[in-house]
Amino acid sequence: MTAPTTPTTAYLVTGVSPLGGEPTDLLLADGVIAAVGADAAGAAKDRDGDDLVVVDGTGLIALPGLVDLHTHLREPGREDAETILTGTRSAAAGGFTAVHAMANTSPVADTAGVVEQVWRLGRDAGYADVIPVGAVTVGLGGERLAELGAMADSAARVRVFSDDGKCVHDPVLMRRALEYTKAFDGVVAQHAQEPRLTEGSQMHEGTVSAEIGLAGWPAVAEEAIIARDVLLAEHVGGRLHVQHLSTAGSVEIVRWAKERGIDVTAEATPHHLLLTDELARSYDPVYKVNPPLRTAEDVAAVRAGLADGTIDVVATDHAPHALQDKDCEWSAAAFGMTGLETALSVVQQVMVDSGLFTWADVARVLSVEPARIGGLADHGRPLEAGEPATIVLYDPAARRTVAPAEHHSRSRNSPYAGLELPGRVRWTFLRGRPTVADGELAPVAGA
Ligand SMILES: NC(=O)N[C@@H](CC(=O)O)C(=O)O
Ligand SMILES: [Zn+2]
Ligand SMILES: [Zn+2]
């Protein structure tokens, strides 16, 4: 007698456009893309004993699962704002299959123990791969380097280090971090903010801040740190990643550094691609974020920098905050806005619908490059037979009015509330298992 085989579910996606190209069929089975094109339907028939789900992919675009290089999941410590479970459900709903979890939790992710805990909780939740980012300095205190090597050697295999929320301001510490991380091909991701130039800052320093009377955060406070850091990276030969770059001057500095051969990458957020400091006139703290929303000229320069490859990645900087931390006057409110469930739509509107980007470019900045920078081997892969079935199926023709109450994030601080945005995630697959099925979050049994 032969033992009964457990049926597995295979998915035949018909008429889908990989990276926006010619429609074809994809068979997803055993965690991988089992067949592509004319073979897929035949291969599906040959799989006796499997459950087969046929997904009508007409009009849908297939992309590699999105990878966020900059997410705040708030666990441990601020589970009232987000948890690893709610944050990764939010990620899956937005088409993400991996998120890098920032270290500014409580306790701070500055030891092997904390990063392993975050990594395990992500694995158990099962909605997206959670890649912990390790703090550069103990407690984000900016005074002593954390145990970068121990975090790199841990089960979480940390490769990205950041004090995000705080700038690694001491140039000696920044230099050492750039040196030490070379040993394990790590990268130092910098929140570029000169602290003395931004004491008490509430919004971008410019005509709007002067008119409405909020303390300004000058562009130079960001640009001075980026300029210093690219020179330090050049000097020691380390890898630098510039987080949430937001000014025209920052784009110019990164462009200059790349031309010079310096090993630097940069990210821009969806909100810095779409929104401006004019929104602060409402005094609605949903628009309060670090770095602040800048001017229309800065937005244009960030778009141009993304279009010409100066900026490598779009990262959400999803920064959920509990109601009481946002539902107050501007100066008392926390900095940050959510972004996982709207990022792809904003990138479609700003970059694709405007003609600046193809869908292959979208895959590059939201999946391939963030996976490469983060050192993730099985994300951001080509949509070819034998590759992991870690993909998103997206309907670019759908429209929706953003309603934060419907978001899967535990927090509601989306700056796009009430705005109509294009596109909708229909399916997200993580190694062949749907985390989103036909537009709805799918129940997932953790690994
Ligand atoms: N972006 C923000 O405004 N806030 C982030 C910190 C950060 O990314 O600097 C947060 O943790 O809330
Ligand atoms: Zn930051
Ligand atoms: Zn951040």
TrEMBL record:
Residues 61-247 form the Dihydroorotase catalytic domain. GO terms for cellular component: cytoplasm. Binds 2 Zn(2+) ions per subunit. InterPro entries: DHOase, DHOase/Allantoinase_Hydrolase, DHOase_cat, Dihydroorotase_CS, Metal-dep_hydrolase_composite, Metal_Hydrolase. Gene3D superfamilies: Metal-dependent hydrolases, Urease, subunit C, domain 1. Pathway: Pyrimidine metabolism; UMP biosynthesis via de novo pathway; (S)-dihydroorotate from bicarbonate: step 3/3. Signal peptide: none annotated. Its cofactor is Zn(2+). GO terms for molecular function: allantoinase activity; dihydroorotase activity; zinc ion binding. Its EC number is 3.5.2.3. Zn(2+) 1 binds at H70, H72, D164, D317. Catalyzes the reversible cyclization of carbamoyl aspartate to dihydroorotate. HAMAP family: PyrC_classI_B. Belongs to the metallo-dependent hydrolases superfamily. DHOase family. Class I DHOase subfamily. This is Dihydroorotase. It comes from Salana multivorans.
